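ERR on first pass: missing label on line 2. Operator R.T. fixed the label and resubmitted. Corrected input:
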Amino acid sequence: MIKIENLVKAFGAKRAVDGVSFAVERGEVLGFLGPNGAGKSTTMRMITGFIPPTSGRVTVGGHDVAEAPLEAKRLIGYLPEAAPSYPDMTVQGFLAFAAEMRGLDGAAREQAVGRAVERCFLASVLHQSIDTLSKGYKHRTCLAQALIHDPDVLILDEPTDGLDPNQKHEVRNLIRELGKSKAVVFSTHILEEVDAACTRAIIIDRGRIVANGTPAELRAMSTYAGAVTVQFQGAATQPASQRIAEKLAQLGKVEAVVDGALRVYPQAKGAAGDLARAVVELAGREGWRLEALRTEEGQLDEVFRRITLPDTVKR
Amino acid sequence: MNAWHAIRTIAKRELVSYFTSPVAYVFLVIFLLLTGFLTFTAGAFFERGEASLGAFFGWHPWLYLVLVPAVGMRLWAEERRSGTLELLLTMPVTAWQAILGKFLASWAFLAIALALTFPVVVTVNVLGDPDNGMIVAGYLGSLFLAGAYLSITCLTSAMTRNQVIAFILSVVACLFLILAGFSPVTDLLVRWASPAFIDTVAAFSVVTHYDGFQKGVIDTRDLFFFLSVIGFSLFATSVVLRNR
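pass 2 clean. output:
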């Protein structure tokens, strides 16, 4: 549904987006990750046709955004970063306006407004003017606007920003639900959302894609991936822990974690469970009494930190 | 969805938004009070002893100078400031449709304000026997004058996210359009410029073209002037929006 080829956006000498290519099909939810200023919003603005790319091509549903903007825009529902809306309008009035702008009139308009209100839990504030709403409601009003015409493509720029944990949870569920029948791209810097809602994630840094894969694939890039963390009974004291660590070292690099727990890193990428089994066998031979054992999946935030540069580092 | 539907939807939202905020009511009250004061007191309507609305229309270029930019300054500046411009321009509309929709809504609002001055027409008809054709032409000229100022305000509003800046820039631009044909200014130019130059400058003035209407003459050249000011300003607005 969405195809992006070699997209570049330069602001003066600075390349905010520098050769980004990816594609999103129907049924996919693409998480767009990256530190602040990495080029997430700029990329989304180019997909929705708000700003023209310096070079490269965006097609949505087969329509080139630069050449057939109206056809492309018709397919897209867009939630901009700050979730803007007209403060002097009521929620009802604003959504009716959005529906009319999408060519829905009369009964079709009422139906579209009703469905969006239900999906975004806005029924209680329907007749309130938007400037009297709390941030969470304002945000969801703008989200409802993006869903009003039941678009095939959803571009959501930080859809959970400023929401409380319950609202975040609802919005993630909504995104996952919508992703079954649509192509969804959403940006976030909350890594747990990748697991909660995405089928695939892209990490972007300084305008370039630095990682692209399923959440599991990204986690596998972690240095922790495949490591085994074990805790033995009576190993909380330094000497005992030390002795066990020396023995475990034959299986791989050992690192002490908190409370006497030890983490063993695999020497080579083996089948999942190989290392855990080896640790258990060794424990059996040595007569250590196992308290806990866990194979690490890898941590997204560690991957994220390793492959992106923090804001505070001079660029 | 056809283009007219989009223009109408945008215009409707814009026009309604005037009336859901105090802007419309403050403007209408001030406008009507000022036209009343300027016509009857400062314009010496009764002392003139003639059944015409010269005292009424004569003030419009100056009155609009302040009031029209006040109506139009938020058109794009506010959309830019609040970020709704991003919302509007990513909906399936062209920049042209959005520009026309907003312009027509504000123009319609000014037309409503102008229509509410009907009591002066009633007054002059009760007191005497005016040339009503001339009055109609006067109203038409006034409407086009407001449209020209408004289109310039549209342009300055698109250039900034600050409404105050939009207001000041459009006042200055409109003031130039008045002064170019204002007799104290043209008299000043006579001393060193050729008559052809003065005529060229004066031809750019809204006053020169506005006066025609007040004499009851609807000249296609005057109409063309106002329409081309509007057309040019709105075109420039689209260029500004595209290069934002």
